[in-house]
Specification:
- This protein starts with a strand and ends in a 9-residue tail after the last strand.
- The strands form 5 sheets. Strands 1-5-6-9-14-15-16 form a 7-stranded antiparallel β-sheet.
- The protein is α+β, with helices and mostly antiparallel strands.
- 32% of the residues lie in helices and 23% in strands.
- Helix 7 packs antiparallel against helix 8.
- It contains 8 helices and 16 strands.
- It has a single domain, classed as ApbE-like domains (T-fold).
Length: 300
Amino acid sequence: MGTDVEVLALGADDAAMAMLGALAADALEAREARWSRFRPSSELCRLNDATGAPVVVSPDTFALIARAVDAWRDTDGAYDPTVLHALAAAGYDRDFDAVAATSDAVPSASAAAPGCAGIELDDLVSAVRLPPGVALDLGGIGKGAAADQVSAELLDRGVAGVRGVLVNVGGDLRARGEAPSPHGWVVTIDDPLHTGATGLLALAEGAITTSTKLRRTWTRGDRTIHHLIDPRTGAPAESGLASVTVVSGEAWRAEVLAKAAFIAGLDDGRALIEEAGATGLFVTDDADVVELHGLSAFRP
């Protein structure tokens, strides 16, 4: 998934941690093999290359795509998994390390994302049909879903002594089971502009996700480009925000809300997160930190 992964466990000794690490690695590799847009053999690549034909996929891939389509509808298109062509046109068309190392290419002209309206889902046989010209990027929601699923699998294995886990997949955090006392899992919130005001959050169970335009960037000529694409324009979003952090019950949902709120901007993004029953904070381009209602409950 092109990112670092961290597994923490409450009550685990060295042997238990070794077992959890191996289990997590295998579980994440299985999802990478299905959801990566950089592996030609993945289910996602087969679907994107199907030129309008239906493709039968595994149940968890089908469920992930169905969630992405529902999220597109629920956010009125602010979250849009069909930005893949725009992302590639901006230069993110290979593993990120290779993208960042290239600086001489000129980005292609951008165009609005096509959206999910024409995607057909057949849950009877787990088949998906993308209209011609539509391709999916499941990178963000896939990381969140992986954190949700792997944390559940690790806890369900009943490894001796393990009472709770926290799985961090590239900044998408999911906590399950018991948490350390007295505050829970204490997390330093991403502070991309070094405001000193984002602080710490404490989580007993649930998820925290941050989307920022300042971490995954690259240059093309004299332009600095980031990976958060505005589906309305097909270009990197300029919404006045540097980052959005969301606290929610599930990491995939927090990921969706953080990206959608980043695209929507401060006022509409605040409404979107609060209407979904979540909370969080915004860092603006001017280094203002805006906390949403309910976030104080998660301050240690």
